[in-house]
Amino acid sequence: MRQQDEATRRYYESRDVDVFYDVVWGGEDIHTGSYAHEAEPVADASRRTVERLAERLAERLGPGRRVLDLGSGYGGTARYLAGRFGCRVVALNLSEEQNARHRAVNAERGLDGLVDVVTGSFHDIPSDDGAFDAVCSLEALCHSDDRARALAEATRVLAPGGVLAFTDVMAADGTPDDVLRPVIARLGVDALATPSFYRERLTALGLHAVGFDDDSQQLVRHYDRLTEETRARKETLRDLISPDYLQGLLDNLPQWADAARHGRLRWGIFHARRGTDTP
Prior knowledge:
- By secondary structure, this protein is α/β, with parallel strands linked by helices.
- The protein has helices spanning 3-12, 15-23, 42-57, 76-85, 96-108, 147-156, 177-184, 195-204, 218-232, 234-238, 243-261; strands spanning 66-70, 88-93, 115-119, 132-138, 158-171, 207-214, 265-274.
- Helix 7 runs antiparallel to helix 11 and helix 9 (218-232) packs antiparallel against helix 11.
């Protein structure tokens, strides 16, 4: 396994991280939320992001269609797509612990026949060229140390006419890497991608109709809500996670909100299409 993939796997298999995502984030859709109002629960806003991304894929979804979810986590996106559209979803994810939980919930909800949970890396997707009608990812690429390779792999497995959509937390163009390093330290990477990087790479890969639904203002609200919820649940969390990790969250989450307020971060949905004449 690649060194960065192994670091990401260890991160997501940490009990501290797992409890935080379960107690504070809802344990289903671990993504930046699309908030309808300031006090909206984090889990509800995160699910709305999944719904928004699905709209970008919808023309290529339906019974008989095949979808790939890169960095599928606890499986919220895969279950939503399979349950709403009846498509078959391959959920690719590094953490076998998360994947075991994903499979169990799929079985409980009667979706195990539509969702195939695969342990693996989006840097080396274990699928044939052109295997999928749609490929998606929600805030997984921020963990990559080779996003160009991950995008190339996503494009390789996309069928002619297929669509790609993903969200990611990015650095604003022109923001020096060292300014954000204290903010992104928990992710285990040296730098974030930028919107211009994604635009340029998607275009270079021969994808068409490359677009970015910039909703960066959601980042402030999202990290403010995570900070509020972590503080509100502090006494519960004290009994479940290590004191150092809890204090690290209370120190780090406001840094994300502050970086967003100062225009140093970007977030939204990238989307593109593979042309029917793409080799």
